[in-house]
Write a structure and sequence with these properties.
- The structure is a single chain.
- The protein contains seven helices and 15 strands.
- α1 (5-13) crosses α2 (24-34).
- 29% of the residues are buried.
- A seven-stranded mixed β-sheet has the order 2-1-5-4-3-6-7.
- It has 291 residues and is an alpha+beta fold.
Length: 291
């Protein structure tokens, strides 16, 4: 049985719970438009392995499927987060005995970059390189990339809209719907209060190919353990590392950020830290020049 529209709306509003400037009206409008909307797939689709080798693949009949569309705008590596998709796909397969397919449709601006990313992160599922952007032309997806991922039912109608890789709450919604008996929901902690000494790092002048690491210290001055749900970098040349266990009140968490400069010139990168803090997400900025 399909969940009531109000439940779907609330779940989708969670997508941008930290971005007040976007407004719930915009989210509600998108949800209203896309609820129960059927996704039309073009005929004669060509699927590949690693975006390179053509393979025989027919979309299977299933109660649910997950569709990710990635357009050619912006940083492909930042949008994809392929290593996290690998983890999510493995979890979906484990909970559903492999009965829920995950479909990747790419409209790449740089096919070679995409092939490299797929191979680098070991993504073995078939993917469709939609170089003529036929899927989007037919369905006219929202322009925002956080609304270009869908949980579909057996009739290819939208159940949920939102990216489970970028938001832990959306992830819980997807898994609870496709595997209600097998999935054990994760209940986020109550919010706590944090302090951070430095939110902007001037890295000076860097040489290309020489990674530079900085450490941001987040202190938990609240009353409940601090839990970081997700980190998101503004480009694929920035990586984040931290200990996954909760940080108890009175203790601190170290966030290590490594920037590997690739392009010459001025850079201004950000890392967003999502967690159960009142000021989530924390934004950390890296600035400097590359020669």
């Amino acid at each position: 049985m399909r969940l009531p529209f109000f439940t779907l709306l609330i779940g989708s509003c969670i997508l941008l719970f930290s971005c007040k400037e976007n407004g719930k009206e915009e989210i509600a409008k998108i949800v209203t438009e896309w609820q129960d909307k059927e996704i039309i797939f073009p005929k004669n689709l060509v699927f590949t392995r690693y975006g390179q080798d053509t393979i025989q693949y027919e979309m299977p009949e299933s109660d649910y499927k997950i569709l990710l569309y990635v357009d050619s705008v912006g940083c492909t590596g930042c949008k994809l987060q392929l290593h996290k998709w690998n983890e999510f796909i493995a979890e979906v397969d484990s909970l559903t005995s492999g009965s829920v397919p995950v479909l990747f449709f790419f409209h790449p601006k740089d096919k070679r970059e995409l092939t490299y990313l797929l191979k680098r992160d070991g993504v073995t599922i078939p993917v469709c390189l939609d170089e003529n952007d036929r899927l989007n032309s037919i369905n006219q997806f929202p322009s925002r990339d956080d609304f270009q991922c869908f949980l579909l039912d057996k009739d290819n109608k939208v159940v949920y809209i939102g990216n489970p890789i970028h938001n832990i709450r959306i992830r819980e919604m997807y898994l609870s719907r496709i595997a209600p008996e097998a999935h054990i929901p994760t209940t986020p902690s109550r919010n706590t209060i944090t302090e951070i000494d430095q939110t902007e790092f001037n890295l000076g002048t860097l040489k290309r190919g020489n990674p530079t690491t900085v450490t941001a210290l987040i202190r938990n001055i609240g009353e409940v353990p601090l839990v970081v749900y997700e980190t998101r970098a503004s480009c694929g040349c920035t990586s984040v590392s931290y200990k996954k266990e909760p940080t108890v009140p009175g203790s601190s968490m170290e966030i290590e950020i490594t920037y590997n400069a690739e392009d010459p010139g001025y850079f201004n990168r950000t890392v967003s830290i999502y967690g159960n803090m009142d000021n989530s997400p924390l934004i950390i900025r890296l600035k400097g020049n590359t020669n």
